Amino acid sequence: MADTVKKNREPLMHIVKRDDITGWKAWAIRIGAILLGLLLTGVISGLLTGASFGEVYSIMFKGVFGKFSMIFQGKTTMLWRFLQQTAILLCLALAVTPAFKMRFWNCGAEGQALMGGLAAMICMIEIGDKVPNGVLILIILASSLLAGAIWGLIPAIFHALYKTNETLFTLMMNYVATQLVAYYVVLTTAGAGSNIIKPVEHGNLPILLGEKYLLNVLVVTFLMVAVFIYLKYSKHGYEIAVVGESQNTARYVGINVKKVIIRTMMISGAICGIAGMLMVAGTDHSINTNTMGGQGFTAIMISWMGQFNPFIMAAMSGLVTFLKTGAAKVADTFFLNSSYADIVSGIVILFLVGCEFFIKFSVKFRHGKKGGKV
């Protein structure tokens, strides 16, 4: 039988890993991805609403910040609400970043924040009228930090000692935290005719310069700087980076990997606890199972999109908050489904995540030459 002769053809295209790409080129790709995402959402919004591209984004801007004239007149309530929402999302992203840099996939920020908020709520209700408000706030802070840290400690211990899957463990801890909050709400409101805890007067965080949200924004700004310094310049930050690169290398140079995992997850949980405290004692003065609004999961994407850099994460948090809040206003204006806001923000996030592929790899197309014969 005659041997079959096949032509050896080069594929139409193939993927090649890039060499080191300059920082400005990488960010040019990311900014391009954001613009393409905004363009696509504008087109989709126009098709759904019949409004022009400019009209859609004008409604979004007014839905987030209000009119320019209102801002110039000192009416900045909407602006501060935007900064508050951005701050809480950033706080959760800051919390998961040390764990992610260590390659510990902490998907439990939502539950850790809820436990911090629950600890704050218990203190506000149970001892709110028994101690001075200044002392109460300190107790609330300590309790929220401790509750969040413990909720982060539990999966860390099981992972460090028994190699359990941290992703599943932390996800399941979210459901436990949610049910604990639901139980406390029912327990507290028994006989009240509703399952809603009325706003509590004791233990509310102070209002600075007449702005309800200013303290929350300042606290998260401080945490942003602190996390940046901690990860970049501290010994603990160096150990986190080494463990994230290779646990075997970390052990070889004398780093106690189990200790680093447990310590880092306690810090991660404690920062989540602060986010919960800011929502309960600084914003809502109450708690329910939806207090964090699912932001713990969005924070995971913020941390990744920000490349573990707190300052870039702040910009990403602002962008996502703008898209969600603005898109919700468009949905209300044109009577669209409430899922529209999630779709809009999801498209832009998808473009941002997808562009990382083109930063790390390039697509090479086939040349015009014919291949040889095998």
Summarize the structure.
With 374 residues, this protein is mainly alpha-helical. It has 14 helices and 2 strands; from the N terminus they run βααααααααααααααβ.
Features:
two-stranded antiparallel sheet, about 375 residues, 14 helices, disordered C terminus, mainly alpha, about 70% helix, ABC transporter involved in vitamin B12 uptake, BtuC
Q: What layout of secondary structure does this protein have?
A:
Blueprint lengths: L12 E5 L5 H27 L3 H13 L2 H5 L4 H25 L7 H18 L6 H30 L3 H23 L25 H20 L1 H11 L1 H6 L4 H28 L10 H11 L4 H25 L5 H21 E5 L9
Helix pairs in contact: 1-2, 1-14, 2-13, 4-8, 4-9, 4-11, 4-12, 4-13, 5-6, 5-7, 5-11, 5-12, 6-7, 6-11, 8-9, 9-11, 12-13, 13-14
Helicity level: over 70%
Mean pLDDT: 88
Q: What is the level 1 CATH name of the domain at 76-321?
A: Mainly Alpha
Give the distance, in angstroms, between the N- and C-terminal Cα atoms. Answer: 17 Å
Radius of gyration: 24 Å
Structural class: mainly alpha
Strand content: under 5%
Q: Number of helical segments?
A: 14
The SSE string, one letter per element, is EHHHHHHHHHHHHHHE
Number of separate strands? 2
Largest sheet: 2 strands, antiparallel
And the CATH topology of the domain at 76-321?
Answer: ABC transporter involved in vitamin B12 uptake, BtuC
Shape: globular
Q: Which CATH architecture of the domain at 76-321 would you pick?
A: Orthogonal Bundle
Strand order of the largest sheet: 1-2
Give the low-confidence spans. Answer: 370-374
